[in-house]
Amino acid sequence: MSSDFSDFNPVSRITIDTVGEPGQRVFLLQASRGNSTITLKMEKEQVRVLAASVLELLEELDKEAPIDDSRLDDPLSSDMLLQEPLEPVFAVGQIGLGYERTENMIVMVIQEIQREDKTDLATARFWATRTQMKALSEHALEIVEQGRPICPLCNSPMEPDGHFCPKQNGHDKVEWD
């Protein structure tokens, strides 16, 4: 493993949220264990794919190894909000998901994005319950959808005052409703 390795086993809190206005938002994954908190920077598409992948994994797990989660409390909505420190430790590159059957925990391993000036990449590992990961995924999808609307013609994000769509050869401004 990397010399810069963080292991949160188990997390007491895990979330994804944003800082900034749509179009200028920074997506942050944040996890805590006790008094320790780590913040990582993600791209919007990484958030979308992670949330969808977690929900798909949870669906498979519910078929293979169902659990009675009626006794488990959903995380509080305040647990989904970012807390200090907001400064990311690193930008997310690769994300891996797994399931530890004996502990009944989902394990997420995240590696720092590859940079030319760095050969030893930071890694963080998060162990979370199914309930925590379901809440993370649902919240993350809500956050992604709160962004700028997508142009129906070119699938690019539109600014509040519209945008000059390449499908219109940049001549007509596409407005959003």
Spatial order of strands in the largest sheet: 1-7-6-5-4-3-2
Rg over CA atoms = 18 Å
Question: Which of globular, elongated, flat, extended, rod-shaped describes the shape?
Answer: globular
Q: Report the helical percentage.
A: 10-25%
Total DSSP E strands? 9
Following the backbone from N to C, one meets helices and strands in this order, namely EEEEHEEEHEE
Mean pLDDT: 86
CATH topology of the largest domain: Secreted effector protein pipB2 fold
Instruction: Tell me the domain tally.
Output: 2
> What's the N-to-C terminus distance?
50 Å
Given the helix and strand composition, which structural class is it?
alpha+beta
Going by CATH, the architecture of the largest domain would be: 2-Layer Sandwich
Strand content bin: 25-35%
pLDDT < 50 stretches: none
How many DSSP H or I helices?
Answer: 2
Largest sheet: 7 strands, mixed
CATH C-level of the largest domain: Alpha Beta
Walk me through what this model shows.
- The chain is α+β, with helices and mostly antiparallel strands and 177 residues long.
- The protein has two domains: 5-146, Secreted effector protein pipB2 fold (2-Layer Sandwich); 150-177, no CATH class.
- The protein has helices at 44-64, 130-145, and strands at residues 5-8, 13-19, 26-33, 36-42, 90-100, 105-112, 123-128, 163-164, 173-174.
- A seven-stranded mixed sheet has the order 1-7-6-5-4-3-2.
- Helix 1 (44-64) runs antiparallel to helix 2 (130-145).
- The longest helix is centred in the first third of the chain and has 21 residues, at 44-64.
